[in-house]
């Protein structure tokens, strides 16, 4: 039983896009400090939508949602940036800024947080070296391969040492060796206290890491066998 | 082939060129990309706005300056007109009026215009040498008066009436009031044009800021998701618009100053300043005032863009 602080809690939350039927229904789950969850399910099941609610891109249309102990549905708009800064997101479509270099993309969360460059320059360089892009720091995304972009996106998500890491198919565009390294990094960060949710189709990866699994099907979240802490 | 091998094989590409130096020490691009094709038209429009704002401000200053000169001249002078049934009556009246004037405290200078000078004024209409044959022209005495005398002319008026029955005193008050009224109208019109230009700059800035946000929607979205505040994004947009505005404003200022210098030369070449037209020469202090117009255009553009962005973002999650 993990008694860490609550990082994410949904209570019968639902999400509908405009007038369409709900994409996610009656989501009730809790993620605590230091917990690791895989999120699996068929394409279109709502994995990305669930992550979007957590990283405050979409507001649940019903139910309740707490993030880092704060009621995220009632929080004033001015309070949201501070919550977002505690989350590192690896987007499925990378979402790098095309006019920025790899270095600038990775440093972006620190820059918007107003951190002095002297304080993060080494961290950014170290992360880019770690993901194998030490010699591509000045490259623009248009000149990077899909795998390289994914690694830049990963470095950007981790640079601010977030309390919550969300990764949407983080190994989808990298070779197996790099995929394994990335997952090991998530596990290490998780051991250091960060809560982690990784959405993936790669069941082999899920099994090899051996962490609890949340499964989404028909817009509802269920726990797979052995998953603890959810709900 | 692994990603790392692929990278090593490709080596550094053209896209690896270091970005230009900026906020990041390694060199950085601005958070919002340079406007490129969209920036040039905006700069051009702001240049036109700035040009019009400078001309409106120049009109305001020139009218103000000219009105001040005209009214000052009118206020410092008074005119004594001497009528009579014959040239001899007029001549006697002028002599009497001049004695009174020369004997009055506050009269700095009194100059009687000769009959010949008066006739010359009417010759264009009546023909050379014909004026005196048709008319008995009243004599005019131009008087430069001290402010104290100018403020109390009743005594002088009474003394003139007693000494020279055909003499009347004109303090130019009617002209002064009309001129002041016309100057105020001109100044109000110029200021109105200036305000309209500022309003147009606001409207353009709102439109451009909204278009910029729409065009950079993905970037703004990413900035939000990594924790940027609305104020941070608005400050970036404001900085962009300030730079574009400054560029346009300087172009507009240069063009307007060139136009004013050319207009001044043209007026002087035509002898305009001697023919009651305002002097279009720009003094140092006037240029300083003119510089406020492009600065105002630039600030209005940047601040409007900031407020537009804050307003637009406040409607998002």
TrEMBL record, chain A:
Domain ABC transporter span(s) in chain numbering: 8-230
Gene Ontology molecular function, alphabetical: ATP binding; ATP hydrolysis activity; transmembrane transporter activity
Protein's job: Part of the ABC transporter FtsEX involved in cellular division. Important for assembly or stability of the septal ring.
Taxonomic path: Bacteria, Pseudomonadati, Pseudomonadota, Alphaproteobacteria, Parvularculales
UniProt topology in membrane: Peripheral membrane protein
Keywords: ATP-binding, Cell cycle, Cell division, Cell membrane, Membrane, Nucleotide-binding, Transport
Name of the protein in question: Cell division ATP-binding protein FtsE
Pfam family membership, one: ABC_tran
Compartments reported by the entry: Cell inner membrane; Cell membrane
Subunit structure: Homodimer. Forms a membrane-associated complex with FtsX.
Protein source organism: Hyphococcus luteus
UniProt keyword Transport, yes or no: yes
Automatic annotation (TrEMBL), chain B:
Compositionally biased spans, kind Basic and acidic residues: 1-19
Record-level GO cellular component terms: cell division site; membrane
UniProt KW keywords: Membrane, Transmembrane, Transmembrane helix
InterPro entries: FtsX
GO biological process, alphabetically ordered: cell division
Designated name of the protein: Cell division protein FtsX
PANTHER family assigned to the protein according to its UniProt record, in alphabetical order: CELL DIVISION PROTEIN FTSX
Transmembrane stretches, start-end: 40-63, 188-213, 249-267, 287-309
Region annotation Disordered: where it falls in the sequence: 1-23
